[in-house]
Write a structure and sequence with these properties.
The chain is built from six helices and no strands. With 139 residues, it is mostly helical. The chain has a single domain, classed as Globin-like, CATH 1.10.490. The protein is globular, with a radius of gyration of 14 Å. The two termini are 17 Å apart.
Amino acid sequence: MNHEQIALVQTSFEHVLPIADAAAALFYERLFALDPTLQPLFTGDMHEQGRKLMTMIRFVVKGLHQLELLIPSVQDLGRCHAAYGVLDNHYDTVGVALLATLDQGLGERFTPEVRAAWVSAYILLAGTMRGRMIDTIAY
């Protein structure tokens, strides 16, 4: 990711924060519509799960400018997700759900440039969580 892409992700996420609860609910609605088999992985309070999701995204977004410090935490997060039963192919579904949520939540602010920046960020982070770096994901 370059500095411009990082700035686009960080700036656009600032517009998500005021609607964080609604965005989280929309994300999980979209995720479960795309792959209903994921729903059993989430057994707790979904409102609380949504807050954890937004906290994690905020942490990652803020840390994009210091990847060397962020990567170990993202690797740990990937290991935790694997222990919960998250499979490699689930990351693609999560990426699609995330982009759809951002598209709906940001509206006209989700420009092609902002979308491309989020795709780059997600590819980097999902690859790190998976334990490897990947070149492309088709969204």
